[in-house]
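Lecture 7 notes: from sequence to structure.

We start with a single chain of 362 residues. Read the sequence below before looking at the structure.
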Amino acid sequence: MMKKMFVLAALLCCLPAWGQWFREPTPNDTLQSVRVLPDGKVLFQIYAPKASSVMVSGDLPWDKPVKFEKADNGVWKGLCEGLGDGCFRYSFTVDGVKVQDPKAPLSAEQASVLTKGEGYVRNVHHGALSQRFYWSKTLNCQRRMHVWTPAGYEKSSEALPVLYLIHGGGDNDASWPGVGAAGWILDNLLAEGRIVPMIVVMPNGTIPSGDMMGEVPLFADDMVTSIIPFIEANYRVVADQAHRAMAGLSMGGMETIETAFHHPELFSHVWVLSSSFSPGKQKEYVEKIGLNKMAPALNSNFKALVFTQGGQADIAYRNCQEALGYLKAAGIKYDYMENAQAGHSWTTWRADLQVLAPTLFK
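Now the structure, written as tokens:
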């Protein structure tokens, strides 16, 4: 089925984040496109170094148009005055072309997706996909996650195991159920009897902080202090280690390592997809967390620790191989898989989900 389907996405999940270690950084990497200033004015910003004109339009005061000026670093800036409190729709116009804000929190959900061939939508019983909001103690703000429950969950009284499934850098919690087709894949696997009924939680691993690597420990803390407790307080789950798994791709893989390696007592299955320890600083990271001392706890707690890659074309390939070397040196047991030779892409990660989900909780 994978050969029959090709998905083209305008925003591939992890390329913005991983690309930082393979190209020259730009102001766009940490740019905040909208900032509310202390005086109540709103600063709009967009990185368009080759543009000759930029405008912003939407639910903004029509009598006070925003005037943009281009800075030397290629960032266009414009101040909006007279905007009260509330929610406002807006978009940029760059050289006459309407552009949705590429730095908006929900920008990853605007990816254009082309489905060719059979795809994943089949005539089977489908589960429910929900948007849930929770209060993050770590970030002191409201956060969103997507939750897939299997067909029949609403009428059942059975408590189910949980897989926490994390996207990569540049995306959000809508990516796995969207371009990742996670709900469709799980529906099909369940209908075929290949997976046990489970709940799959897809949190938002992106935390706007101006420091991509700084997001990793913040998300790990949010997982432990807020996300897992929210799910176990609001869903019918088996709340123990044997029935809890975590997986993440690319930057989400680093977040998975950060969470599971520091809390091995929480998870029985851990997948690290197209990822590694901190790229470019793996030795420092391994020494910082004391990987060698962790080995006994990881080996005794994890029923399965799996690292995957999309072949040598995967931009995380070298980093992952280096990470596996550190695992071997520490005596940590793991499995390695190159399930799809599709590089650092959703084709690889969808294939990973199809192959690995049937191994859970059996």
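The two ends are 25 Å apart (CA to CA). Keep this in mind for problem set 3.
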